[in-house]
Specification:
This protein has 165 residues and is α/β, with parallel strands linked by helices. It has 4 helices and 7 strands, in the order E-H-E-H-E-E-E-H-E-H-E.
C-alpha cells in the first residue's frame, strides 16, 4: 500500500495564489488530504476550484494572509472541523462558514470584523469556539451574543489593539 497523504504544508512560501501545478500533482489523492496549511503567505483570495478540489478537508490554516472573503464554494467543505483565518483582512464575517455542519472552531482573531451573525452561529450544531479577539466588534454583538450562544466566543475588551508583530 502506498503511504497516505494527509497534510499539505505550504506555510511561509510567499504565495500570492495557490499553485495550479499542485492540483495536477495531487489529483489522485485529494480525497485523502485532511489538512492544508497556507499560513503566512501573501494570499489575497482562494478560488472556488481550491474549495471543490479539497472538499475532504478537516482543517484549513490560512492565518497571516491578505484574505478579505471566502468563495461561496467553501460550503462544499462539509467535513471541515477547524478553520484559522486569523491575521487577515476580513471586514465582514464569512457567513458561508455558518452552513458547515462539522465546523467546531473558527479563528478570526486580528481582522476588522464589526458585525457577527450571532443567530446563525448559535444554530451551528458542532460549533465549540469562535475567536474574535482584536476585532472592532460593535457593542450590539457584545450584548446580544452571550445569552444566545452555547459555544465559547472569545472577544477582547472594547478598543483593545493587538500587540505589534
Amino acid at each position: 500500500m502506498g503511504k497516505q497523504i494527509r497534510a499539505q504544508n505550504l506555510a511561509e512560501c510567499k504565495l500570492v495564489s495557490f499553485p495550479i501545478g499542485i492540483y495536477k500533482v495531487l489529483r489522485n489523492v485529494t480525497d485523502q488530504i485532511h489538512l492544508i496549511t497556507l499560513a503566512n503567505n501573501e494570499l489575497k483570495s482562494l478560488t472556488s476550484k481550491f474549495m471543490t478540489t479539497f472538499c475532504q478537508l478537516r482543517e484549513l490554516r490560512l492565518e497571516g494572509n491578505f484574505l478579505h472573503r471566502l468563495p461561496n464554494e467553501v460550503n462544499t467543505l462539509q467535513h471541515l472541523k477547524a478553520i484559522d483565518l486569523s491575521r487577515n483582512q476580513f471586514h465582514d464575517f464569512p457567513e458561508q462558514l455558518t452552513t458547515l455542519p462539522a465546523l467546531e472552531t473558527i479563528n478570526l482573531e486580528e481582522n476588522e470584523i464589526v458585525d457577527v451573525p450571532v443567530e446563525k452561529l448559535a444554530a451551528m450544531p458542532a460549533l465549540r469556539s469562535v475567536n474574535l479577539r482584536f476585532n472592532p466588534l460593535n457593542a450590539e454583538v457584545r450584548v446580544i451574543a452571550p445569552p444566545l450562544i452555547k459555544f465559547d466566543m472569545l472577544m477582547s475588551p472594547e478598543g483593545a489593539r493587538a500587540p505589534p508583530r
